[in-house]
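Changelog note: in this version the structure field was regenerated for every chain. One regenerated record is shown below for reference.
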Amino acid sequence: MENSGCCVGGNAGKISLTVVRLVLGFIFFMHGGQKVMGWFGGHGLAGTVQMMTGMGLPAAVVYLVAFGEFLGGIGLIFGILSRLAAADIAIIMTGAIVTIHFKNGFFMENHGLEYPLALAAMAISVVLGGGGCCALDNLFCKKKAA
């Protein structure tokens, strides 16, 4: 018997991973869209590179972050390479915490680590548990029942 990843039968674990994957994917699609494409009031790639290199980040890192957020968000929304996309997001958020947010304390209103920590935790959940239901990964990564 194969496990297709479907949420038939009320498998709450798979459903909860799906919710986390979709919400996290949407958040990073939106943020990545701002950084890469200039959508949703963003600065676009040139503006993002200028702003973030001005904060001391190397240009190569800025490109990796911008495209990692954008493509990682798309991957999570569709459930394509879910664990890899989530690992990318977790690394980006850890970097953001270490380089920017940690020095500002915990709370979000002071640009502290509260929000990126929550996003990193969501990403780690997907890394550990997979994409849940309705992920395209399930079409290619079928597990055989023991």
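Spot check on this record: The longest helix spans residues 12-37. The longest strand covers residues 2-3.
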